[in-house]
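User: I'm putting together a teaching handout on how multi-component assemblies are represented. Below are the sequence lines for each component of a complex, exactly as they appear in our records. Could you produce the 3D structure of the whole assembly as structure tokens, so the students can see both representations side by side? Please keep the chain order the same as the input.
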Amino acid sequence: MSSAHQADPGAAPSAEAPDPSGPSGPVPIIDGLPPGPRERLLGLVTRRELDPGATFMHEGDVTKSMSIIVRGRVALRLRVPERGAVTILTLDPGDIVGWSAIVPPYRATTSATTLEPTELATLPADDLRAILASDNEVAGAFLPRVMETIAARVEATRDQLLDLFRGAEVDPW
Amino acid sequence: MGSGGALATTPPRFLPRERFDELLASLGTGGRRVVGPTISDGAIVFADLASAAALPAGLTLETSPGRARLERLPDGPGRVRTFQYTVSGEGIKRFTFPSRVDALSMETADDGSVRVRVEAPAEPVPLAIVGARACDLAALAVHNRVLLDGPAVDPDYAARRRDLITVAVECALASSTCFCASMGTGPEVTTGADLVLNELDDGFVVRAPTPAGERVLAAIDGLAPAAADRTVVAAAQTAAARAAMGTSAVPAKPRDLLLANLDHPRWDAVAERCIACANCTLACPTCFCTGLEVQSGFDAAASSATRAWDSCFTEGFAQIAGGSFRPRHRDRYRQWLTHKFATWWDQFGTSGCIGCGRCIAWCPVGIDVREELAAIAAAPTATPSPIAAATTGIVALPALAPDPLQFTPARVVAVTPETADTTTLRLATGDPRILAGTPGQFVMVGVPAFAIPPISISRFHPDGIELTIRAAGAATSFLTRLRTGATLGLRGPLGRGWPVADAQGRDVVIVGGGIGLAPLRPVIDAVLRERDRFEDVRIYLGARTPRDRLFVDEIDALASRDDVLVRVTVDRAGPEWLGRVGIVTQLFKTVRGTGADATAFICGPERMMSATADVLGDLGVPRERTWLTLERHMECGVGLCGHCQLGTRFVCRDGPVFSIAELGEDLRREGL
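Assistant: Of course. Below is the structure of the complete assembly, with chains in the same order as your input.
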């Protein structure tokens, strides 16, 4: 297994999502919301630093929080009998982990494990659901961003389902 | 000789009916083979013509959609006529473009070396064809354009056309299936004939538009000039045939109409009747698509390949590794009709239909192209006006290497397994044509007993090339098992490659999926060789699983450079993979700084390339500088075999690299 792809050496920082600038640094997605909803959501945020290999969400468990990746990389994994854990998607800074925190039945559809030193901006599920239910301004600003995430996952899953890179079964050559 | 040109004005002569054999004798001088219409199996068939007695005297051919029957001519003085029908069941195509010709042989010598030899066309016996109609000669002119006028020349056709004398007969009547007058190809014979006959009851008015025709007539003693009353009758007969057909059987500007209506519901309607039997393409005098059929002995040491007529109606015609591009009858009928009436203009500057109507008569379910065109014209789903003028292909084609059909030997000097099913062969060759190839070009690879696949060149060396081959079928599986020292035949380089030089001074974005990295590797090589001529260089790669990544060490080395950004993702992985998982577009959808100044090079499955082009477009990369390489069924690589058509293009000849702007909607159109 190659190690060179893990840390992406050679990455041009200017070409990537913003780097974290410390514990109170920017939070992707939320920073882009209008001032009111932004401040009220930031008031719910707690920041977590995780080492590589930390599984902070377990498939099937009640989702206790939604997180936005500030730094690092997270693998979403499914446990498949006889195949073990299969990584179906990795997430990068700016991606949401744990959308199931606000979608019934509030159970995680995958496990989430850090692949690198990772910083998360975390919103507790109870608090988040409460503010989305009571604050239309926050809901109107934030929910479309969550739906973008879910839509992108659905789209990506469809493409993966097509298995485009698989070899052909029928071939003239 | 034979190609006619403008008709000269030597005075018409009269050939009495009883002297017709003298014409045949004159044509047969010097051993020339003479063929003409005869009766066989209840049809009019061109065959060797020993005497006028073999002509279809007293018969005519009644045709209508799905029907062609020989009938007796009515009693009367005209019953002696021998050309009183319109088109024969089959045209003259099989004499100039036979259904099967020897194409090449491949053999393994005792020392193990492989030799691929293109068969030089047998020097054909000089030929005279008697009884060709205006439509037949128009079809011959179309074939001249396709097979002789370049950029590639069909050597067999060239040989057969070299010494051909054509004796045309101007039609004195029209069948219900005839529409040459609408296509501008008849019934008057205006080009391509060495002699033109108009049949009267007592003989023939004969014109000799060419010196070759004049020589034939000169050898017949004592032919008198045709009297004016005869020439008047002759002209009146032809005029009557024209009047019977009318000149509006086909809508105006069928090209623009069809290209604007590629999604018309009529295609579904006709597909319910079409049984994809390919009769229309076999009967059509201009259809020129061919395939290579390889015959081999059990030991596979030697094989030969035959070039045989193929048809776009067959299941395998548009087959590639991932499946068929035209799986439905609708797709195939649309391909055929739009090629004949529309995209032929783009490719060859002429119509592909000459109005003979054979496809109508010989269609077992009676589909009538005139009716299909009229149905679309009557209720177009899109305005036919804004289609760009037909300018592709013939105007700005890349120059082909000399002898693009010739193979050159190459020896395997290194074998590198890349994945479980993919291997890179390093080949040594001294052929300067191959070494002068450019990134994105491909070669045809020949080994005995297998089909000849097109393979992209995955690296250029001063003394050879590399080919990275995925074992997908029998031929490619064999190639991936070759060992050092093995030899094979290469033909190429072919196609239009990536415009790497045009990307100088700009950001470069390279996106590869699966085996699609192979044709991009020479781009990466070229960019890195002159790294300072390019701005930011970003490479995004997708693979099915971590084990399916190509060139892993090379890509790792690239990723460690500080002047190249490399991102890799896989579709699925186990927990041991710490890299990215997801589709390739996720690698750059949020990347800033990629935009109007970038040139993008994309290769992978077509759906991946399409999605990639969308995301890059959203990021501001111009469509004119978003390049991708298409995969289509290719057998000749030079635009002669017809398999790789995509709309107005031949992918092998005009591509395989195209910009998104060039492809337009065709990239996403299903079944094209």
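A couple of points students might notice: DSSP finds three helices and eight strands in chain A. Residues 136-162 of chain A form the longest helix (27 residues).
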